[in-house]
Specification:
This protein has two domains: 136 residues, 3-Layer(aba) Sandwich (Rossmann fold); 66 residues, 2-Layer Sandwich (Alpha-Beta Plaits). The protein has six helices and 14 strands. The chain has a seven-stranded mixed beta sheet, sandwiched between helices. The N and C termini lie far apart (39 Å). A hairpin with a 2-residue loop joins strand 12 and strand 13.
């Protein structure tokens, strides 16, 4: 199926945001490699620099898909170990608000994404213009759930008004989508999220929820493409052009 002009334009924005993030990767860095279409552009561009001998870095991926892509493009990978800290993690988001609260997990990698992000000195979000919103909630909130606990998790989330739906394979609607950890994925339709901190606290206390897709206070900055300009968004700060920065904002 051919891409629509809008899809083509958004993909160009993703490439632009990923390219802008490259300017802050330095020799010797340990880099967290995100998951999703925008992060894939970053991994591909990073691999080009590594193969050309312009950058010497190592990385750890937030999903098996990103790990496979990183290997294909020649990025040396590091296995998880105690004491491992990342200088920079570059990842996408399904939604981000002006306070840099995020919804992530549309690709099913929310657990590993949050693990890598919280093990990083700096998390940088890369996003196209459609991802920046005034308030979170239009995009369904993903959960990763232990299969045994699924019925009770669905009951508990429904009681919170989340209208939970087990994620099914788009190619085979009879098949449930599993995370890389072989857990089930549930998409919650709360609508507009007026108190993300409260909701996060409620969800994490439900037995069987391994992780939720609210990333609060984790991202340091976001690169968002708007009208062919890359803007740097930070919580409580007016947007600035990425070209104004030589170091991480």
């Amino acid at each position: 199926m051919a891409s629509t002009p809008n899809t083509d334009h958004l993909d160009q924005e993703k490439q632009h945001a990923a390219r802008a993030a490259m300017r802050w990767v330095r020799d010797g860095m340990l880099v967290g490699l995100g998951t999703g279409s925008t992060a894939a552009h970053f991994i591909t561009q990073l691999g080009e620099k590594v193969r050309a001998g312009e950058l010497r870095i190592q990385g750890t991926a937030t999903s098996l898909a990103s790990e496979n892509l990183a290997r294909q493009v020649g990025i040396p990978l590091v296995e998880p170990r105690r004491g491992l800290r990342f200088d920079l993690t570059v990842d996408g988001a399904d939604e981000l608000d002006p306070q840099l609260n995020l919804i992530k997990g549309g690709g099913g990698a929310l657990l590993r994404e949050k693990i890598i992000a919280t093990a990083s000195d700096y998390m940088l979000v890369v996003a196209d213009s459609s991802k920046a919103v005034a308030q979170l909630g239009k995009f369904p909130l993903p959960l990763e759930v232990v299969p045994f606990a699924l019925p009770w998790v669905l009951d508990a989330v429904a009681a919170l008004g989340g209208n939970p739906v087990v994620r099914m394979d788009r190619q085979d609607p009879s098949k449930q989508v599993l995370s890389d950890q072989k857990n089930q994925l549930v998409d919650c339709h709360f609508g507009q999220l007026n108190d993300v901190q409260k909701l996060a606290s409620q969800l994490i206390t439900i037995p069987g929820i391994v992780e939720h897709g609210l990333f609060l206070g984790i991202a340091k900055a976001a690169l968002v493409v708007r009208e062919d300009r890359v803007e740097v968004l930070r919580a409580g700060v007016e947007p600035q052009l990425a070209s104004d920065f030589t170091e991480l904002p």
